[in-house]
Amino acid sequence: MAMRVATHLRWVLWAATGLAMMLGCAAPPAHPWTPPKRPLIWPLPPNPPRIRYEGAITAGQAFRFATRTGWRVFDWLAGARRVELSTPHGLSAGRGLLAFADSGRPAVHVVNLAERRYKVIEAVGDTRLRCPIGVAIAEDGALFVSDSALARVFCLSGNGQPLGGVEAKFVRPSGLAYDATRRRLHVVDSGAHTVSTFERAADGWPLLRTLGGRGAEAGTFNFPTHAAVDRDGTLWVTDSLNHRIQFFDAEGKRLGAFGQAGDGTGDFAKAKGIALDSEGHVYVVDSLYDVVQVFDRQGRFLLAFGGSGKEEGLLWLPTGVCTDDEDRIYVADTGNSRIQVFQYLRAEPAEGPQAP
């Protein structure tokens, strides 16, 4: 009897070892998002493709990242974590990290793409988050989080430890944009109809300037929601209820605006998130039309992608958008409780400069 048990255990051990070896030889997943079931590109042929759908991070998805020796086979054995995603809003990508605020949970999700790790931040020190909306990643991996219900902007270290915050009086802070070159943090305050810029100093984040105030004139805002900053320091602001995008230079001088209310190409109904890629194309989320519209730096419409629905590549009440160093485009598909990932496809050098 004992011999039969020992033999059986040896067979189980050999089988488990063989399975581990086979799985260890398999290629680990390149990214944490679920790949698409079918190819999706925009625009459709015969036009050259400029946007490709890459996949999605969805509620309940398990991050099955590779270990140093091979695949992690079982969730309980590997410690794979499942995404408890509810209502994603603002996003930020940089330094191998993808962070997104979740007002419904409420929490901030952080995916370390380089080290294959995932964590959830539900509190900053002893303060529990109530309605996180915006996130921004600094050049040293520090994370900024705006909470509109607490009317505060927090700063955390890369491992989630509190680093203080931006000491200012906010009404309803929402979108954040970080300028790594100038070490400046731009805070959109939807309730105050302003965008404030804070500059890093030895003793914290003193206020540099505040733009706006409620109105429809040039340089004023009507419930701004999100912001983005490009490499030369130009600040792009979604002036949501004025149905336009306003942009300012690094010194706060207004450079121009584009957009209007309407349902035509390039018009806005409920503009929300905004981002730029490495070639300066401007991506604007429209939460009512369920699309992402793409413009050049002069505000000329180039194309749109998305559309209303729950299928792959479609959107429902999207809010935030960001890009990373590889020109991937992350969209907070809020109504579908997921993050959808797209890729900007650069034109071939022989083709010369091309619109996306």
Q: How would you characterize the overall build of this protein?
A:
The chain is mostly beta strands. The chain has a domain at 79-166: Thrombin, subunit H (Beta Barrel). Helices cover 8% and strands 40% of the residues. The protein is built from two helices and 27 strands. The chain has helices at residues 2-25, 75-78, and strands at 41-42, 51-58, 88-94, 97-102, 107-112, 117-121, 123-124, 127-128, 132-137, 143-147, 152-156, 162-165, 173-179, 184-189, 194-199, 207-212, 224-229, 235-239, 244-248, 254-258, 271-276, 282-286, 291-295, 301-306, 321-323, 328-333, 338-344. The strands form seven sheets. The protein has a five-stranded antiparallel sheet, with no helix packed on it. Strands 3-4-5-6 form a four-stranded antiparallel sheet, with no helix packed on it. Strands 9-10-11-12 form a four-stranded antiparallel sheet, with no helix packed on it. The longest helix is centred in the N-terminal third of the chain and has 24 residues, at 2-25. The radius of gyration is 22 Å and the shape is globular.
